[in-house]
Amino acid sequence: MRTREVALVGTGGIAGVHAADIGRLAPRVRVTAAVDPDASRLGEFRERWSVPNTYTDLSTMLDTAPPDLVIVCTPPHRHAGIALACLGRGVHTWCEKPPALSLAELDAVAAAETPDARLITVSQHRFGSGAERLRRMAASGVLGPSMAALCLTLWHRPDSYFDLDWRGRWDTEGGGPTMGHGIHQMDLALSVLGPWREVTAVAARRARPTDTEDFSAALVTLDDGTVVTVVNSLLSPRETSHLRFDFANATVELTHLYGYGDDDWLLTPAEGHAEAVQAAWDAGPAGRPSGHAAQLTAILDALDDGRPPPVTAADARVTLELITAVYASAFTGAPVRRGEIGPRSPFYRRMDGAGAPWPPRRGPR
Question: I need a surface site. Which of 9, 65, 110, 295 has the fewest CB within 10 A?
Fold first, then answer.
């Protein structure tokens, strides 16, 4: 089995999470390089994770020692540019969420892909065994048709969280909890239930010192008619991430915060379906928590098999288009259908479109 070489671009907190996961997956993969313009932070990262090669410039790294995979761990406004640079050098690029600040950026990055250089988006909640089990059961029909769902990301971020200059801005973070936090729960829900059709939403800035929203809520109608209630908040002192899937034959619930294991799932069969539903649940995959290591394992498997690694640009676009539609509906007061936001829409290039309906507090970067 070939050992894959990985370079980390950005050496903040999330880069350490990736480095630790890569260490646990050795010898399938190893960190060979790190890139950060902050030489001091780069040096600390090199010492902490024993990185053999460090660079303050991305182009120098790509010229000197191009890896098999680049992991983008920078603030969001740098994601698309880094991805374009790496794809242009023929390197697969795994990007932290969101993969781009807009549909326009994501479409530009996707257009730069080749079979040997793919954009992959961090969507770690798709890869726990519980999510895989639920997707298999939904596809098999044992759960019956989908009826309704909840998708709640109720988190808390104090004002001090926004002390970092790039947080809370449309031009650098792309949005508030809808874009940067609830994206994971929404992505998982869509991976189970399928494509969405229409969104009606509200968004507000209730308390935080941001230009972006700190709360949003939406009713999302899927292609099969399922209505998903989505709430994204940074104002919730009792934090929880909760998904509830009501099928005709059972309710399946997931309650966690930043990652889940098998014990975080709850199955409640409907009367008359307990035996079949429970048997299918018990026969499903188990023992794999969600997380970056789970997705990285799937990426390595795909690379070894010559398949496109998950999650593809097309997969990521479905989720990013939903997020865009939430903002568009909230700021225009009208429902938004999938496919409606094209290059002529102001929301195609910025999540706030022509501007949020409240005055800025942080201003342009």
Answer: 65
Residues 106 and 136 in one domain: no
Note whether 214 and 250 are same-domain residues. Answer: yes
| Domain co-membership, 198 together with 262 | yes
Looking at the 3D structure of the chain, how many domains does it have? 2
Write a three-state SS string for the chain: CCCEEEEEECCCHHHHHHHHHHHHCCCCEEEEEEECCCHHHHHHHHHHHCCCEEECCHHHHHHHCCCCEEEECCCHHHHHHHHHHHHHCCCEEEECCCCCCCHHHHHHHHHCCECCECEEECCHHHHCHHHHHHHHHHHHCCCCCEEEEEEEEEEECCHHHHHCCCCCCCCCCCCCHHHHCCHHHHHHHHHHHCCEEEEEEEEECCCCCCCCCCEEEEEEEECCCCEEEEEEECEEEEEEEEEEEEECCEEEEEEECCCCCHHHEEEEECCCCHHHHHHHHHHCCCCCCCCHHHHHHHHHHHHHHCCCCCCCHHHHHHHHHHHHHHHHHHHHCCCEECCCCCCCCHHHCCCCCCCCCCCCCCCCC
**Judgement on whether residues 258 and 278 belong to the same structural domain of the protein:** yes
